[in-house]
Amino acid sequence: MKKVLFLALAAASFTFASCDSKTENAQENAAEQVEEAGEAKADAMEDAGNEAGADSVENATEAKADAMEDAADANPSQATPAPAGGATTTQQ
Q: Where exactly are the structural domains of the chain?
């Protein structure tokens, strides 16, 4: 019973430690939609017999989705807010 409780507590702490902002989640969802749309287009091209074009489309959309996810990750998360401008933390 102690192991189950410990694992539940550990899972809950990881959940709070990895909170993303709503903006970051929206950007990551948009990247996922771009990737899914690219895969669907590549599948259609492959079914039509254009495998080289399908590979090209799939690679291009994956690169675009990766760039979108990287941009989303560059935004500060809710768990680590940026310090206020002009504030100092020196002690006297």
A: 21-73
Can you tell me the distance from the alpha carbon of 64 to that of 35, in angstroms, rounded to the nearest whole number?
8
Contact 68, 31 (CB under 8 A): yes
How far apart (Å, rounded) are the C-alpha atoms in residues 47 and 64? 23
Rounded Cα distance between 79 and 19, Å, is 6
Nearest residue to 77 (alpha-carbon basis) of 23, 20, 13: 20
What is the rounded CA–CA span in Å between residue 51 and residue 79? 44
Whether the model pTM is above 0.70 = no
List, for residues 23-32, the tens digit of each pLDDT value. 888 888 899 9
